[in-house]
């Protein structure tokens, strides 16, 4: 397949741009997702600490019955899908089973009540969420509060846990929109750059080469070596045009010597005397009279 120089350049630039666009979009998606998860994790740590402090205040003021109000306040925060207190076995043994929302529902709750924290992104089809759990241990000095004074358990016993579920759908959708906007902007910039590159190639490369090609074809077909091209001697194409003009000058000088040599040969031939023909020589000899032997001398 025959392609012009401009088409080859455009194809090469299009390939490079496509690779850059794909890798930049993938890198941007990974980076923005990581940034979102980092921000959500920091937010979850602050909200868990605030939830613990709220529970301590309710216990100290003997208002644990209002803990559902505290829970609903956290549910009203942005991106919070669920917020719950998990009731440990030691607390249930001392104070009863508690509310339905305070029981274990899945493996994350089970791990939290076993004293293991969790922070994991869960994908349920098209839905993505971040699950964060942190166990609450009985300590003698937890933010200035002695947990063992209210809970008759040994230190570091798991009293319960706090769990937050954060919806990531809105945030990930925003990331995708940002990536799409960036991709469209890069495509527009590349399109303008491609048009500018095409104009530069046609003006500085293709047009001079086309003029040089036409001049060579005319010189070959019509044997017209008098046409010269104008070009900028500062670049490679200009030097090619200059070399072409010099070649035509040399061709004209070579062709100019041949007529001169032919004229000189004709002039030399004209200045030589005519050579007699063989028939004229015989006639001359026959015109000479020989004396008759019978006649007296």
From TrEMBL:
<feature type="transmembrane region" description="Helical">
    <location>
        <begin position="179"/>
        <end position="201"/>
    </location>
</feature>
<keyword id="KW-0812">Transmembrane</keyword>
<protein>
    <submittedName>
        <fullName>Methyl-accepting chemotaxis protein</fullName>
    </submittedName>
</protein>
<keyword id="KW-1133">Transmembrane helix</keyword>
<dbReference type="GO" id="GO:0016020">
    <property type="term" value="C:membrane"/>
</dbReference>
<dbReference type="GO" id="GO:0007165">
    <property type="term" value="P:signal transduction"/>
</dbReference>
<feature type="region of interest" description="Disordered">
    <location>
        <begin position="259"/>
        <end position="297"/>
    </location>
</feature>
<feature type="domain" description="HAMP">
    <location>
        <begin position="203"/>
        <end position="256"/>
    </location>
</feature>
<dbReference type="InterPro" id="IPR003660">
    <property type="entry name" value="HAMP_dom"/>
</dbReference>
<feature type="compositionally biased region" description="Basic and acidic residues">
    <location>
        <begin position="287"/>
        <end position="297"/>
    </location>
</feature>
<dbReference type="Pfam" id="PF00672">
    <property type="entry name" value="HAMP"/>
</dbReference>
<keyword id="KW-0472">Membrane</keyword>
């Amino acid at each position: 397949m025959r392609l012009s120089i401009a088409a080859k350049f455009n194809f090469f630039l299009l390939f490079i741009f496509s690779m850059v666009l794909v890798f930049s979009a993938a890198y941007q998606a990974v980076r923005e997702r990581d940034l979102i998860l980092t921000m959500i994790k920091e937010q979850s740590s602050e909200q868990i600490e605030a939830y613990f402090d709220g529970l301590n205040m309710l216990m100290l003021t003997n208002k644990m019955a209002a803990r559902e109000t505290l829970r609903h306040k956290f549910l009203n925060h942005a991106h919070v899908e669920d917020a719950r207190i998990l009731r440990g076995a030691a607390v249930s043994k001392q104070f009863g089973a508690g509310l339905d929302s305070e029981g274990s529902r899945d493996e994350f709750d089970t791990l939290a009540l076993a004293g293991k924290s969790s922070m994991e992104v869960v994908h349920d089809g098209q839905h993505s969420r971040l699950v964060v759990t942190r166990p609450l241990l009985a300590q003698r000095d937890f933010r200035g509060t002695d947990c063992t004074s209210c809970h008759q358990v040994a230190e570091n016993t798991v009293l319960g846990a706090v769990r937050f579920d954060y919806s990531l759908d809105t945030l990930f959708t925003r990331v995708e929109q940002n990536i799409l906007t960036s991709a469209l902007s890069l495509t527009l910039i590349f399109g303008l750059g491609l048009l500018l590159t095409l104009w530069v190639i046609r003006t500085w490369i293709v047009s001079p080469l086309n003029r040089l090609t036409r001049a060579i074809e005319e010189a070959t077909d019509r044997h017209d070596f008098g046409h010269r091209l104008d070009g900028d001697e500062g670049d490679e194409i200009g030097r090619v045009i200059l070399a072409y003009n010099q070649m035509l000058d040399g061709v004209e000088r070579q062709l100019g010597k041949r007529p001169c040599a032919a004229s000189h040969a004709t002039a030399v031939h004209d200045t030589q005397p005519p050579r007699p023909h063989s028939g004229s020589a015989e006639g001359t000899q026959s015109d000479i009279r020989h004396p008759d032997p019978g006649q007296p001398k």
